[in-house]
Amino acid sequence: MSFSSPFPPNLLPDEGSPEWMNKADNAWQLIAATLVGLQSVPGLMILYGGAVKKKWAVNSAFMVLYAFPMVLVCWVCWGYRMSFGDELVPVWGKGDIALTHKYLFEQAFLGMFPNATIVFFQFVFAAITLILIAGAVLGRMSFYAWMLFVPLWLTFSYTFSAFTIWSTKGWLSKMGIIDFAGGYVIHLSSGVAGYTTAYWVGPRLTKDRENFPPNNIIMMLAGAGLLWMGWTGFNGGSPYVASTDASLAVLNTHVCAATSLLIWLILDIIFFKKPSAVGAVQGMITGLVCITPGAGVVQGYSAIIMGVCAGSIPWFTMMVVNKRVKLLQKVDDTMAMLHTHAVAGILGGILTGLFAEPHLCKLFYGSLNKYMGLFHGLRVGTSESIRWGVRQMGIQAIGILFVLVVNVVMTSLVCLFVRLLVPLRMTDDELEVGDEAVHGEVAYAISGQGEKVEIPMYSSYYNDIETPSKYGVNSVE
Question: Rounded distance, CA 432 to CA 367, Å?
């Protein structure tokens, strides 16, 4: 007797699709990872390339292009298992490869998809963290120092935060910290590490600090657009399942970002009398950063409140506090990473501790009472609920302190070690000239009537210029 299967043939388990794997979840996770990857390449590549002075366009974009593949190689060779593998110490995992098909085809520690999927998903998060750090040191960090900094910081700083907060074995994870998609691990870390690196590298030339106009605001806006839309995968992929919670996270993300952008824009108009496109991008970023730790565990109205805070508090620290506190002015933070990521990340962590809803936390974490925002605890009004709410705020604060200390200490150690091998800062001649001195390339060759820099090693690449032909018309050699 034959029985017909209740599933169509393409949904039946087989060797390439085991029973534990959910094809829809796997597909969404790979799409989400790709969206996050696009935030870096080409998103931040063209955002940085357009936001800096013309002479630094190539160098800034190239720092992104270098970091992305370097992080991937380190990630599969040791970084992933140090972040999500077996515990070595309470804040660090054991380093091991994630390259064999036997390991990559096993079910991930969370989610109904294989390790190969989560290794790739978590890689794009690690990569964008390093790329965000670059934003603080654009326009003066030696490219050779950057080449060493990327693998060292990934190994000795990022893996600490990722294991402690995101791994199910980490001590803050066990304690009950809420970091839905990386407000702590990625944004607070990159903001603090970027600012620390900027301190050790030193400032740009004085004339560059005083006059550093974007060379292409349209290109910068295009990169910002990719960054914004890519956040759909950033926060929407963090539940590791194509669920209602993922949908809520996506909607909250865009609501908070939109609100923050509008608040920042309004403040610019009120105090500076002009709507600034650059300012709008800053407001967009602070909103995206602020909602990240709580995207899927807060209500929609909370996302709007978080957007109002994200568009105003970092604006105040950047436009008022930074200009009045001389100590802050001593550190040259090119892309204002301290304000857009560290301040906004801290703000997001605190507000998540206030607004987190137990039911939504259960959808994400699987536990009802362990995660409870303070406002919900006060609303319930019992001594137990208030205690849980206060406890959550304490854990969020401990997480902030942990990330601050780890990143200041480990980033400083990495910078000091790199400085023993190569200078952290470019030479004065390189700082004066820019891309042409550092890379032998310029971003806008058309400004030189089609002439391009001649590099003997790659000279064949530069022969595609218009030259008079023997036939009396222009041809391309």
Answer: 57
